[in-house]
């Protein structure tokens, strides 16, 4: 029987929901467990065709709202959510329109993901870390490009294939219905 993301530990689902919904600006970090799990149930409803498209390329997975959510939940279950969080923090940073905001945003990303005492330290080589540290002296929209590329390649070559082989992905494919657009809509409870 297919369980979908229900096969992941509850703590992973809660953390995934918190990260995703906070990133989308839908919920704050202090949101209750019930709201998080309800939001997760309503959030993941891909069609079979969409699930199968994710196998075509890592880019197609990331460009799909549902694919990104499922992949993020998988990374949370493997305790490597910092990779996707760093990747999207860099994407957000690169699109910062005000040059005056770049130094503070760059420092925040560096402190969270790259610094020696970073709470969500990413796995990059010493050379990349040094180049990124040097780029911090004069932050530009491209100062994290090398580190972001390394993390992207790590996810594409390691995490993505494992995700496609995972029971969570298999369960999503099993649960999805061909061309069922209703499957992408939130379920509504019937009034008694």
From TrEMBL:
Residue intervals of the RGS domain: 57-173
Entry keyword annotation includes Signal: no
Keywords from the named record: Signal transduction inhibitor
Gene3D superfamilies: 1.10.196.10, Regulator of G-protein Signalling 4, domain 2
Key word Translocase present: no
GO terms under biological process: negative regulation of signal transduction
Identification of the protein by name: Regulator of G protein signaling 16
